[in-house]
Design brief:
single chain; alpha+beta; 2 domains; 6-stranded mixed beta barrel; 13 helices; 12 strands; elongated
Amino acid sequence: MIPIATIKIAVRALRRNTLRTLLTMLGIIIGVGAVIAMVSIGNGAKAQMEARVASLGRNVVQVFSGSSSRGGVRMGFGSSGTLTREDYEAIRKEVEGITGASPEVRNFTQLAAGNQNIYSQVTGIGADYIEIRSWPLESGANFTETDVRNANKVALIGKTTATTLFGDNDPVGQIVRVKSAPFTIVGLLSFKGSSMSGSDQDDVLLVPYTSAMRRISGDLTFRSILVQAVRPDSVADVQQQITDLLRQRHRTGGGEREDDFIVRTQQEISDFATDQARTMTYLLAAVACVSLIVGGIGIMNIMLVSVTERTREIGVRMAVGARGNDILLQFLIEAMTLSLAGGLIGIGFGVGGARLVSANLGWTTLVPTDWILYAFLVSAAIGIFFGFYPARKAARLDPIEALRYE
């Protein structure tokens, strides 16, 4: 019996009971489709996370102030303002290999323009901020160091806030009242998108940090400072310089006092976010793989039933010269045909499902080409693994006993 004839016999046997064949493939279809769809969603989430980390800017080092305790519970970094204006000036003057630095003073407060009144984020920053964040202006100009020194009432406005307050009109030159203080808008920021936490980065008003501290928040310290290194390979050195400088200024480290600040690089933040997204992707894929195992068990079950039903047929073929290997190959091909056909259909369902999720829910999905190949190979392996035992059982039948079987 030549292999081509064996394939024809296997396919003909599967076509005898089309409904049972389709139901047997269903487990593989669901398993492969679920794996492709889940990995696509996970990859999309990972890509979104990386894009949000990239929105921080290039070669960025973030300095966060210390933690505080409330009711015996230790809060996270940034909950207590331990970074001073003197720390910020020292970083700008003494740390080598940086192109700029800017503090961040965040507040949520009332903004008013014309008959519009909203509650939005107002962030106090330095003149280097938009350069550090790689955040170009759509119109107008950035405020200057002189504006920062003099605590001038000037502002840059995000796209969302501008649309809410001024509609389609150009906001540059308009007045927006922050609490009771009138700020003149000197620049409109370009679209930025969501932050790592999912908040709208464009729903913001940026003002000189001196103005924010004096006229809005009344803060005397910073929660965070952004620093930009000259080159990617100098980020680690800048991080170490800042750490050493602040330890010297705050008299911490050395085992005597715990640091009341933390210095993080953009790469560390990116690695953390990517690890989380990768873990989620693998978890989703692992859950979906259970369906593949169930589908494989279904194939084994149906093949065992098929061997029992076709015992006399197997005996006749052996009696006319078919060898045990021919019978083994025939049933293996049947099992592999079930799993491979189910795998191909499942890949189609998985890709289609991922695109459907993206279109209807607005989620970013990235269909992984390598995982499509893996799914196809795994479905073939499942056919061989779960089909081998029934095929081996069929190949070992005694021809005489098989012919007597009723």
